[in-house]
């Protein structure tokens, strides 16, 4: 074909050699580019595989660390550090977890959980993981709800504030104040409770001979403290520390009325036996006494 185009025979071979070299160089370059791409693809695949392996290793490590954290959280007593100190001489006051949780939430908590009686019960029973288990319980409003077993145990032995003795109230209020401070209650709210209990303990009725006056003070502080928690955030909220003499007198009168009503109801339960249920049986008299005593039988 080259000869047909008028190319001299002397130039045909060199021309073919040039064409071959050009084609070969082009193919060689294309082949080298292909090899470079394949090598790059292999390196990229190896890099991605190594990166994926590192990520998998990190995921496994994170899962193990998370599992350890969950275990430390679940069994925190097992991992808490122990200070290198001797056992203290003074009595250690440790309120129940149920009471401290309520104070942490800023909720109403009964004084009973800070009395010697409840603290002794808590001291005799060690906390268990089962205390965090949920149990189905019927609430005061009639609905059912799941609550922790520790809450159920705490409520089982609960004594209302108004039913505590003066000694127990004195034991509990100081400890509750300390617990409020530990739970970071606002200073104003803590001071309200301090002023309330000071007003109750220094009231003239504390030294009165009438048991109703003393009981009225305990009932008053129990009721107003519950009401104070219920009205927080409402227009009906009030200063807990301001004593209301009228309400205190009303509380005393209510206790007197309830006691009188209970006494009347008790007296009404005592009734004479009807005569129709009494039978007389003459007993043979003894020869010595010559009398005819009788024995009464009740039907």
From TrEMBL:
It comes from the Eukaryota. This is Unplaced genomic scaffold PAXINscaffold_1105, whole genome shotgun sequence. It comes from Paxillus involutus ATCC 200175.
């Amino acid at each position: 074909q080259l000869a047909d185009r008028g190319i001299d025979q002397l130039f045909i071979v060199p021309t073919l050699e040039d064409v071959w070299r050009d084609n070969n160089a082009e193919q060689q370059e294309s082949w080298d580019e292909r090899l470079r791409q394949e090598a790059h693809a292999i390196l990229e695949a190896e890099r991605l595989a190594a990166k994926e392996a590192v990520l998998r290793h990190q995921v496994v490590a994170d899962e193990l660390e998370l599992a350890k954290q969950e275990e430390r959280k679940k069994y925190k007593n097992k991992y808490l550090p122990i200070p290198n100190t001797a056992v203290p001489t003074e009595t250690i006051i440790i309120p129940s977890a149920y009471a401290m949780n309520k104070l942490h939430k800023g909720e109403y908590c009964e004084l009973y959980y800070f009395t010697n009686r409840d603290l002794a019960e808590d001291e005799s029973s060690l906390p268990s993981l089962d205390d965090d288990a949920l149990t189905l319980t019927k609430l005061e409003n009639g609905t059912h709800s799941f609550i922790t077993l520790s809450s159920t145990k705490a409520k089982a032995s609960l004594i209302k504030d108004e039913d505590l003795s003066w000694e127990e109230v004195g034991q509990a209020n100081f400890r509750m104040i300390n617990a409020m401070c530990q739970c970071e209650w606002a200073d104003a709210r803590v001071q309200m409770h301090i002023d309330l209990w000071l007003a109750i303990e220094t009231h003239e009725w504390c030294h009165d001979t009438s048991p109703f006056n003393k009981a009225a003070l305990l009932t008053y502080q129990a009721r107003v403290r519950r009401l104070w928690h219920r009205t927080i955030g409402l227009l009906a909220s009030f200063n807990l520390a301001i004593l209301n003499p009228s309400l205190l007198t009303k509380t005393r009168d209510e206790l007197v009325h309830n006691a009188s009503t209970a006494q009347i109801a008790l007296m009404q339960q005592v009734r004479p036996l009807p005569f129709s249920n009494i039978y007389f049986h003459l007993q043979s008299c003894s020869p010595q006494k010559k009398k005819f005593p009788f024995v009464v039988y009740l039907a």
